[in-house]
Amino acid sequence: MTDLPASAPETSAEGLAAPLIAGDRRALARAITLIESTRPADRPAARALLAAAAATGRQALRIGLTGTPGAGKSTFIEAFGRLLTAQGHRVAVLAVDPSSVRSGGSILGDKTRMELLSRDPLAFIRPSPSQAQMGGVARRTREAVALCEAAGFDVVLIETVGVGQSETMVSEMCDLFLLLLAPAGGDELQGVKRGIMEVADLILVNKADGDTAAAAQRTLGDYAGALRLLRARPEDPAGFPRALAVSALTGAGIGDVRAAIAELAGWRQAEGHLAARRAAQRRRAFEAEVRARLMDLIAGDAQARADHERLGQEVAEGRRAPDEAAAEMIARLRLPLSPSGGGA
Predict the structure, then answer these.
(1) The CATH number of 59-270 is which of 3.40.50.2300, 3.40.720.10, 3.40.50.720, 3.40.50.300?
(2) Deepest in the core among 15, 36, 50, 126, taking most CB within 10 A?
(3) What's the whole-model pTM score?
């Protein structure tokens, strides 16, 4: 069964690095707890651990998954994950749950919904609260992926909190992006934003079994037609993006998903698109971290917080233009760039 993280973050990068790289799942759980810590004092150890992880040079196939509520994401991940482990792959699942507004913790607990996969010795499941982070991922999800790779997992699945326009952020940290849908009526296409359609590599219509089999095939036809109207992407071979019908309950179509993923990932790697994609993702991650760190600096200084609140209120009341207020906020910042970093 997947090991639970320690109640408090381990602060010794040296003590975690060796067992982590050896594939110890308890060490991996504690390492993720460390990098998710919001204590500024833990950031140096987290950075040292991430540097040790990067030095291994290990990489995994990173697969992002999102879907409409009730589409059966956890059931699909369990079926797909068990297929992969049966083939000898080591699979890590990073399930980003909505956060409790009271405690900040994860409120769905995806691990409890993947009981069979969680007992698989070749699998690791880690639910993490989104903590109000936009885009369906937690702020440190990208770093958690790097730790899973260093621990020897060769497939990392990132399940987001839901589907929406902002969910496209998960595509910025994965190699392939899957959109899982449930069978629905003719209005289903109107309920899924165009942006999520444009970044999806595979659209999977789940529950293609029993009483919903016919509806699933109709929905599949709708989406296959919609995909043909989208502009072809240079990083895609012929036939992609692709829509497939699956049943996570019976396992029907799961093998087809595995074959499609292997085909697309292999083509992108051979054509150099995968390396270029990851390079662009690293650059955008740097820029996002700079923006987040600036907000951390503001939050960590009483005067800066007061200025930020005052200027924000003036903008809200229409007394200041957003760009003018932002320029003044930046001009007022006189905060040192702490070597330990700030915030989460």
Answers:
(1) 3.40.50.300
(2) 126
(3) 0.83
